[in-house]
Structure formats: C-alpha cells, structure tokens
C-alpha cells in the first residue's frame, strides 16, 4: 500500500513537471498558459492575441504575430478539455488577416466555457470582433479600438466584383459585432466610414470609456476585474 502511494506520488510529480514544461513552451510559442493555482480552485486558460493576426501567408520574421493555425486547434482542445473551466483572452493587436481573425472570433464565441476578454493597448480592425466574441469584455482606460472599412493594403478597388467581395466581408464583420455586443450594425458602418477623425484614412478611434459608451465593450477595467468576473461566471455556471 505504501509502495503504491509512493508510485502515485511520483506519477503526479512527473505529470506536474510535464505540465510546467508544456506551459513554459506554450508561453514562449503562442502566449498561452494555464492558470490553475487560484484560491477559487478554477482552472483558467489564458489566451493572448498579440501583434498582427497572421493568416494564410507568413508575415516577416521580425513581425510580432499571432498565428491562427496555433489558436484554432488550441480552442478546440479547450472545448474538449473537462479540466478547463474558463478562458481569459488578452488583446493587444493591430488587426491583420480578416478571414483568420473572424475564424478565431467565431471559435471563441462558440465555446461552451465562460470567456472574458481584456483589451490592453489596442484591439484594432479585426481585433474588434475578437474583443466582443467573449461572453464579457473589458478595456483598460487607455486602451484603443480602431474601426475602419475592410481594405487590401491601400490598393484602389477597380473591379466591381472585388468591391462586392469587400462589401460582403464588411457586412459580415458588422453583423458579427452587432450579434455579440450592444451596438447596431448601422452604427458600426457609420464609424467605419467616418472621415472626420483620421487625417489620411477613414474610420473611428475609440478610447477606453468611449468603447463602453458605444456599447461595444461591456466595462472599463483591468486584469483584476477581468479575472474576478471570469471566476464569478464559472461559479454561476457550476450552480
């Protein structure tokens, strides 16, 4: 009996060591970590979306990117992992590949686990759907959100078919945002096409409280508020 307990202890220690090594590798490679040492006894997966969302084409090696081929399998694993109670998403992104960003947002929105997002620094362009895809969202007081029309590297759109495609994509983004927060699609489009804020571009910049006032983000707050809210949502789900 004593030998069996010792073997179990060794196996648990080995599993814990492997988990720590895997977590360290996840942080290094994808900005992810499991938060499981809380007093609440909840296991939270921390997901970071940092820099530019990289799509089907690889960005330069000196660019800070979040690769969607890393995020999508991890979200599927989280959904199927009974040990994960909730997901915290940290956002500081300039946007990036629209299709890939929207795919990540749809995956987050379809998770059965409670999710909370926190905008740190900025969540621009396709980062807006990513921020609102969570069940509840926060933005720090100095955080920014840039809402602008879909475009392709500043290229002038000449073909009607290309214009129609971009228009369809823009409608999809506005529709997703409307479905996951309190702002209407018409207001999103109005902010996208705003000509009075950016000197050389269309769009709208929202800072902290402005994003909340528009109904895009639920609340102004930081990491403590976001973590506390997620623990609360997990407890509510377990009742």
Quick recap:
By secondary structure, the protein is an alpha/beta fold.
Overview features:
seven-stranded mixed sheet; 239 residues; two-stranded antiparallel sheet; globular; 9 strands; 8 helices; alpha/beta; single chain; 46% helix
Radius of gyration: 20 Å
**Main sheet?**
7 strands, mixed
The helix content is 40-55%
State the shape: globular
Descriptive overview:
About 3% of the residues have low confidence. It is built from eight helices and nine strands. The chain is an alpha/beta fold and 239 residues long. The two termini are 37 Å apart. Strands 1, 2, 3, 4, 5, 6 and 9 form a seven-stranded mixed sheet that branches. The chain has a two-stranded antiparallel sheet with strand order 7-8. A hairpin with an 8-residue loop joins β1 and β2. α5 crosses α6.
Show the helix and strand layout:
Blueprint: H1 2-30, E1 32-35, E2 44-54, E3 65-67, H2 68-80, E4 86-96, H3 98-109, E5 115-123, H4 127-132, E6 136-139, E7 144-147, H5 160-180, H6 185-192, E8 204-207, H7 209-213, E9 219-220, H8 223-238
Parallel strand pairs: 2-3, 2-4, 4-5, 5-6, 6-9
Antiparallel strand pairs: 1-2, 7-8
Helix pairs in contact: 2-3, 5-6
């Amino acid at each position: 009996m004593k030998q069996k307990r010792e073997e179990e202890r060794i196996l648990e220690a080995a599993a814990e060591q492997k988990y720590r090594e895997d977590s360290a590798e996840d942080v290094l490679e994808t900005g992810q970590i499991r938060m499981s040492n809380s007093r609440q006894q909840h296991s939270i997966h921390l997901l970071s979306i940092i820099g530019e969302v990289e799509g089907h084409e690889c960005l330069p090696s000196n660019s800070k990117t979040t690769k969607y081929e890393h995020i999508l399998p991890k979200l599927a694993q989280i959904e199927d992992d009974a040990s994960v109670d909730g997901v915290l998403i940290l956002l500081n992104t300039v946007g990036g590949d629209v299709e890939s960003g929207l795919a990540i947002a749809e995956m987050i929105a379809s998770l059965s686990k409670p999710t909370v997002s926190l905008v740190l620094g900025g969540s621009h362009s396709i980062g807006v759907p990513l921020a609102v895809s969570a069940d509840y969202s926060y933005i720090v007081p100095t955080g920014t959100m840039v809402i602008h029309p879909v475009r392709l590297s500043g290229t002038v759109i000449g073909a009607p078919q290309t214009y129609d495609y971009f228009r369809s994509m823009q409608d999809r983004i506005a529709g997703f945002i409307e479905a996951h927060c309190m702002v209407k699609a018409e207001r999103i489009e109005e902010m996208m096409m705003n000509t009075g804020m950016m000197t050389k571009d269309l769009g709208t910049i929202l800072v902290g409280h402005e994003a909340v006032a528009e109904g895009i983000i639920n609340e102004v707050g930081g990491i403590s508020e976001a973590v506390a809210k997620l623990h609360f949502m997990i407890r509510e789900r377990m009742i």
